Amino acid sequence: MSRILILFMLLMLGASTSDASPVPPELAPGAHRVTIAGSEIAYHVAGSGPIVIAHPGGPGIEWTILAMPQVEKFATVVTIEPIGTGSSGRLPDPRGFTMDRYVADVEGLRAHLGLDKFVFLGHSHGGFVAQSYALAHPDRLRGLILYDTTPTTGTEWQKDVEANLQWFKDEPWFAEATDALAHETSATTDEEITAIFRREMPLYFAEWTRRSKEYEPYRANVRLTVAPGKATTDSSASNQVGVAPVLEVRERLGAIRVPTLVIVGKRDFVTSEKFGRMLHEGIRGSQFLLLEHSGHMGHIEEPAAFSKGIRSFLKSLPR
Question: Within its chain, how far is the Cα of 182 from the centroid?
């Protein structure tokens, strides 16, 4: 190879490197903090590719349980720690933990990151926030991923949860897990709600008994904050403290026109396939992914199928 050609190649390589867009400091990998509406909100960045803001469930469950390392191979995952959770700021009054507040914090994070549009992934209660955000700010979304969630927490959903618990009645941990579930509302400290959730945790996995050694580290590391769960997402609602947050958007699903992927585990007792299909049928043109061997934690139980579905969805979005 001639010296002139080598020089030309080196010059071209230098030019392509210098033209590469630098990553803004707000999106650099690692932990970050931003002040939104007077409170500090923590968020975490990992991976590379199209930006996906991920909202954990609970409310009050610490963000690391939603870590998605396989998704980070093809997407920049920005995981928010919702107000009152983990290392984010606290609110003095539980009535401040409203759906409007959660939605506003996501919108504040979007603005802080300088994003015109993004893909929003909401898991469980985070899916409540994602649906509400899509209805409030449809022009800000490239795509919506509703993961193990429901458009309603009314009587029909409550009866479904109670019935689905019987899937696990013969498991050796069933009595302890359901006893813990019944005592959720009695928790008054972060330590108490964390201990209760750890006892419940087998219910959230399709095959806890067979794969318990694999899942135990998640139980050991999970942390919860009690305050967000002591409030409803509708400050005008009359439901009791500690009852599942009020959500009813079934009649509004048709207004969601952003490209949407609905993901649900076949053995998800708390937001079952029935309600995943309700979302899919209500949102025009949505895609549906059923994880056959998962409960409520498909990103842990079937990470390959979970990430493959998300990668395919991201590729399908208009550029």
Answer: 24
**pLDDT above 60 for 161:** yes
Q: How many CB atoms lie under 10 A from the CB of residue 69?
A: 12
Find residue 141's DSSP bridge partners: 118
CB-based contact 85:62 (threshold 8 Å): yes
Cβ proximity of 204 and 297 under 8 Å: yes
Beta-ladder partners of 53: 78, 120
Q: Which residue has the tokens 């870590």?
A: 67
Contacts of 34 (CB under 8 A, 6+ apart): 26, 40, 41, 43, 108, 109, 112
- Which of 258, 284, 251 shows the shortest CA–CA distance to 121? 258
CA 11, chain centre distance (Å)? 45
Which letter, b or e, does each residue of 109-125 get, where b requires 16 or more Cβ atoms within 10 Å of its Cβ?
bbeebebeebbbbbbbb
Mean of the pLDDT values across residues 306-317? 98
> pLDDT value at position 93?
86
> Taken in order 47, 49, 55, 57, is the CA torsion positive or negative?
negative
Amino acid at residue number 97: F
Q: Give pLDDT, residue 2.
A: 52
